[in-house]
Write a structure and sequence with these properties.
The protein has about 290 residues and is mainly alpha-helical. The chain has eleven helices and two strands; from the N terminus they run ααααββααααααα. Strands 1-2 form a two-stranded antiparallel ribbon. A hairpin with a 2-residue loop joins β1 and β2.
Length: about 290
């Protein structure tokens, strides 16, 4: 077996890893945000990714403008998905976390089956809005791929800034740290909950609209995405947005570079799981050492 480890191939895969990683980071950041504020795991996150991809496919036929369709699709899925999460999860907030987990899993199954029944099970293709390439060193790279990476990283940086310095960001962090105290100090906790739901769904939908031209769109496309996103959130630290973003980029690079030396994608996935397990073991031992001190 001959591996392609030329400079061009390595640079190409590094760029691909950045594109995939920034998109995964959007999905994972929504998961991390929702867990950090509400302490629930949203199994429907991958399906919001799927709905975002479908929305840009159908809206493009109406508007004829990809970027407008992506914006409208992100807003539509974010608002509708956020309200759906609120209606399902809100009555279960003060009950066992297992119930909220099962509720979001049920929502995921409903969305998948509804997509199959209403939209069909065949894969749909979205044409990239930009077909130009740009020279990056020895390789010519598709311009749209770079747009995906820039938009994804830009949204994450803006979100991190907003979480630290804006009024709603401060409210989010206050509710995450101490919900009863935040409510006593006048923070509109229900509004913060709904905002978290909308942001969670919207980030996944944005990733779906960005990656629609790169992958085929089909009802279960979110299943693979949510698995990777959960790996990222666990490895980055539950509720840690910055950690999730960093791990997502690393995961994207590992998957892309691994394709150069691994004959089967499953080998790369198993290696990725092994690296995450090692990371969690090291972190656990370090935390145990700090506790002893």
């Amino acid at each position: 077996m001959i591996f392609d480890l030329s400079l061009n191939a390595v640079i190409l895969q590094l760029l691909n890893g950045l594109v995939v990683g920034s998109s995964i980071a959007l999905v994972a950041s929504g998961l991390a945000l929702l867990f950090g504020v509400l302490h629930i795991i949203n199994f429907a996150q991958g399906d919001f990714f799927m709905l975002g991809a479908y929305s840009v496919f159908y809206l493009l036929q109406i508007t004829g403008n990809y970027f407008l369709s992506a914006l409208l699709g992100t807003l539509l899925v974010g608002v509708v998905g956020g309200l759906a999460l609120a209606l399902i999860v809100w009555p279960l907030l003060h009950r066992s976390q297992v119930l909220t987990l099962l509720a979001t899993l049920g929502l995921s199954l409903i969305l998948q089956q509804s997509a199959i029944n209403m939209l069909g099970g065949d894969a749909k293709l979205v044409k990239p809005p930009l077909e130009a390439t740009i020279a990056l060193g020895p390789v010519n790279y598709p311009l749209y791929f770079l747009v995906v990476a820039v938009v994804g990283m830009g949204v994450l940086i803006a979100g991190s800034f907003a979480l630290k310095y804006t009024k709603y960001g401060i409210w989010l962090r206050a509710v995450a740290q101490n919900r009863p105290m935040a409510a006593a100090l006048g923070v509109p906790v229900p509004r913060v909950y709904v905002l978290s739901f909308v942001l969670c769904a919207g980030l996944a939908a944005l990733a779906g609209t960005l990656l629609a031209p790169l992958y085929a769109v089909y009802p279960t496309v979110g299943v693979d995405v949510i698995l990777t996103a959960f790996i990222v959130v666990v490895a980055g630290g539950m509720g840690n947005l910055k950690g999730a973003a960093i791990i997502a980029i690393l995961v994207g690079e590992v998957q892309s570079l691994g394709s150069l030396v691994a004959e089967k994608p499953s080998v790369v996935q198993v290696t990725l799981f092994a690296l995450v397990i090692v990371l969690l073991m090291v972190r656990s031992r370090r935390q145990s050492a700090l506790v002893r001190l």
